Amino acid sequence: MTTHRIRVGIDVGGTFTDAVAVDATTLALVGQVKVPTSHHHEDGVAHGIVEALDRLLEQTGNSPEDVSFLAHGTTQATNALLEGDVATVGLVGLGGGAGAAFTKRLSALGKVEIVPGKKFPLVYAHVADPDDRAAVERAVDEVIRGGAQVVVATQPFSVDRPEGEDAVREVAATRGVPMTAAHDITSLYGLHKRTRTAVVNAAILPKMFATADLVDASITKAGVTAPLMVMRCDGGVMSLDEMRRRPLLTVLSGPAAGVAGALMQERVSEGVFLETGGTSTDISVVRRGKVAVTHATLLGKGSYLSALDVRTVGVGGGSMVRVAGGKVTGVGPRSAHIAGLPYACFADAADLEEATLATVQPTPDDSADHVVVDARGGRYALTMTCAANALGRVPEGDFAHADPAVARAALAPLAAALGTDVDGAATQILDAGVAQVGAVVDALLSDYHVEKDTAILVGGGGGAASVTPHLAAVTGQEGRIALHSEVISPIGVALALVREQVERIIPGAGQEDILGVRAEAERAVIAQGASADAVEVEVTVDPQTNTVRAIATGATELRTQDRAHRADDAERLGLAAKSLKVPENEVRTLARTGAYTVYGAEQRRRFRGVRHPVRVVDADGVVRVHAADARVEISTVGSAPQALATLVDAATAYGDGGVRAPALRLLVGSRIADLSGVLDPQPLLALARTELEGRPADEAVVALVEERS
Asked: Distance between CA 204 and CA 233 in Å, rounded?
C-alpha cells in the first residue's frame, strides 16, 4: 500500500542544498533535487530551502498539503563557529563571597581564539547580589553598551537555584535582547563547562533566530501545514521553537543526518558509518542499533553539548595523491576541489592523450609532491576516485562512477613512474588512503567494544565508493555502499525521530526522582510533536557521578512502515545466527511478539562455563538487542509486575560495591524498553511498571534479564 503523504528532508550544505521526498508509509525514496545553497540571497539559506521544496513537489506531483513531516539540517551554526561569524556575548556573572572569584574568571573566555587571529567576542559584568534588581539592570546595560547582542547569565549551582539567572532574563527581556541562562542549557554541575556551553549557544542565537523566522515564514507561505523540524547533532530532530532556545544543538548536525539515514534505511545494528565527501570522511559507530554520542569539544575544551561521536579523516573522493622516492607516500588532506583541478577520471578519453606526470604545490602551504597529469585537455588531478574507478570499485550508476578505461589511462603515467602496472598504482593509492581511515575505524570499534568481525562498514556520501569498498576488501569485513548514498543525509533528516535528552545530578536519586526525569523527557518530545504512543525512553543512572539521564525518542506520526522489504523467518534466523556466531541449527527461537523475534544459543567456554547469548531481531531484519548472557521470560502486562519483581530479586547482586540490579529490557507492543542503565532494584521496577501502564492486561511482555558481573 502506498500513500500520497510524504516526509521531506532537506540538507543545507555549504555548496548545495539537497532535498528528498520519502513515502510516509513505505519510507521509499520518491524524489530528490539539488539546488545551490543561497547564502547571498536576501532571505539567506531560507530561499534555497523553499526553492528545493517547490522543485521537489513539482517532481513528485505532490501538493504542500501532502507533506506530513518536514525537517531540515543545516551547517549554518557549524560554519558560523568555524568562520568566527558570531554575535558579541554579554556575560553576566552572579554571586558574592568566595564563589565570586570563580565566576569572574569566566571573563577569560574573551581571550580564547575562536578562529586564528580572532578572539571570542565577549564583554563581562558582575552582580554580587542577584536579588538587587538595580544592580542586575546596571550589569545588563553595561554589557549592552559594550556591544553585546545577546546576554548570558551564569551563577554557581544555578541548576539548583536558578532564580538569579532568571532575574537577568527578566531584565534582558525589557531591553529587547536575546538571553541564555546557563541552567537552560544543561542541569549538570560544572560552572566553567556549563557557562562555556551557554556562551557558544548564545553567540549563534541572533543568526539562527533570523534564519529560523525566515524559513518558518517561507514554509508557511508555501502552504505546508506540517510543523517544521530541525536536525540535532545527536541524530534526532527538534521543533523550531526548541531550536530557537538551543541553536547549539544544530552544530555538527551534518554528520548526524547521514548516520540517521544509515540506521533507518540500511538497518545497521552493529557497525561503522563512513560518510565520504570530496575532501574528508566522517566516521561514526553504531552499537546495538544506536549511534554513539559524547560531549563535544567547543572553544578547544569540553562542553555539555551531546553530539554524535564523529571522527574526521582528511581523505575523500577528491583527495590528491602524493609521491616521493618512487612510491606513493600519502593521500590527502589536500583535495582536487581546493586545488581547483578536475578529476582525471572524469575527463574525455581524447583529453588524456599525450598525458605526462608532473608534481605540483596546490597551495603555498603544501609540499610540491602532489601528482597531476598534463595532457591535451589540460591539467588533471589524480584522486582516490580515479583509483577506485580504475580497479572497478565504483558500481555503475554510482554518483562517482567513471569509465574504468579512462581512469586507467589517467593512472598509466603514474604507474610507469612507480615501476608497476595500473592495478598496482591504483592499489597503492587506495591502500594509502584507507590506511588512515582504517586506523580511526579500529579505534572507534575498540572504544565502544564493538567486535570487528561482526561490524559492517556502510559508506555514504558522494565519495563513498572511493573508500568503503577497498577498506572492506583490505580488512575482510562486510561492507556496502548505502542505497542513494549521495543523498543519505537528507534521507536521514526525513526519517529522523524527535529526540530529547534530560540530565540531572541527583545525589542518592530515589524512585520518584528517576521517574520524574523520565517523565520530563517524555513530555518534551510529545510537546515537540511526537506521537505519545510511539515514544521510547532510555534511562541511565550513574552512581559515580549521581547523574540521572533520560533519552526520549518518538515519531511525529505513527508509521505503519509497510515497506517493500520485510525480513522473513529464514532471513531473521540467518541474521541471528551470524550475530551469535553459531550455525543456524544451533539457534533457538525463544519468544515472539508482533514486532520482534528473540533468538538464543548456548555457548560452552573452557573455564567460563555455559553462557546463553540472546539477540532480538525486528521485522526489518535489524538486530536490536545484543545480550551476552541473558534469561528470557514471557508473561503478560497483568502478571508482569510480580514476575519481574521475582526475576530482578533473583538476579540482583550484593557486594562491597553496593547493590547491582540486573540489566533489564522489556519487549511490549512495538517498543523496546531499555532499562539496563538503572542499578537500583526499586527504581528499576518502578520504571518497568511505567512502561506497562495503560496497556491491555493480556498483552504479551517479554523480559530479558542479564546479570551483571
From this structure: 15
The residue whose grid cell reads 585537455 is 377
Upstream peptide bond of 683 is cis (omega within 30 degrees of 0)? no
Spell out the SS3 assignment of 218-235.
HHHHCCCCCCEEEECCCC
User: Distance between CA atoms of 369 and 375, rounded to whole angstroms?
Assistant: 18
Within 8 A by CB and 6+ apart from 650, the residues are: none
Residue given cell 587506495 in the structure block: 430
The residues with which 181 forms a beta bridge, in sequence order, are 153
- Go through 120-159 and write b for each residue having 16 or more CB atoms within 10 A of its CB, e for each that does not: bbbbbbbbeebeeeebbbebbebbbeeebbbbbbbbbebb
Tens of pLDDT, residue by residue over 608-620, are: 678 899 999 888 7
Answer yes or no: pTM beyond 0.85.
no
Question: In terms of pLDDT, which residue wins out, 565 or 676?
Answer: 676
Other Cβ atoms less than 10 A from the Cβ of 636: the count is 16
- The per-residue pLDDT for 386 is 96
Q: Is 600 helix (H, G, I), strand (E, B) or coil?
A: strand
Strand partners, 12: 17, 74
Pairing of strands 456-460, 271-276: parallel
**pLDDT over threshold 50, residue 559:** no
Quote the DSSP letter at residue 556: S
Provide the grid cell at 320: 590528491
Q: Which three cell numbers stand for residue 90?
A: 554579554
- The span from the CA of 432 to the CA of 49, in Å, is 38
Q: Is the previous residue joined to 362 through a cis bond, with omega within 30 degrees of 0?
A: no
